[in-house]
Amino acid sequence: MDVQQILAAMTPEVYQKLLAAAETGKWADGTPLTDAQKESTMQAVMLYQSRHNTEAEHMTVAAGGEIRFKSKSELKRDFAIEDSEAPVAEIARFSLQQN
């Protein structure tokens, strides 16, 4: 099977499973990837991204095969709270008292 056939047969669901395996180093059932599987999985993920990723995130392969890096300001803008008037919930508050 050549690269074009692999990409044509790869569904978004298969891509997501391969991406998760590449990120965690394990298959969905918890089995660790071998070194050869890690390499093949990364190649498949990058090839899929190069064909289908029209909105590349920080450090991904954009459509056309171009590696896309977002600047710090782009990332901050992407993750900014849209409504700055909205109250921000506190996660935790700690008191540092020395005895």
Summarize the structure.
With 99 residues, the chain is mostly helical.
Describe this structure in words.
- This protein is mainly alpha-helical and 99 residues long.
- It has a domain at 3-70.
- 46% of the residues lie in helices and 4% in strands.
- The chain has helices at residues 3-9, 12-24, 35-52, 72-79, and strands at residues 60-61, 67-68.
- The chain has a two-stranded antiparallel ribbon with strand order 1-2.
- α2 packs across α3 (35-52).
Structural key phrases:
single chain, mainly alpha, extended, DUF1315
Would you list the SSEs in sequence order as H and E? HHHEEH
What structural category characterises the helix and strand content?
A: mainly alpha
Any idea what the radius of gyration is? 20 Å
Largest sheet: 2 strands, antiparallel
Instruction: Give helix % range.
Output: 40-55%
Percent of residues in β-strands: under 5%
User: How many H/I helices?
Assistant: 4
Count of DSSP E strands?
2
Shape: extended
Describe the secondary structure blueprint for this structure.
Blueprint: H1 3-9, H2 12-24, H3 35-52, E1 60-61, E2 67-68, H4 72-79
Antiparallel strand pairs: 1-2
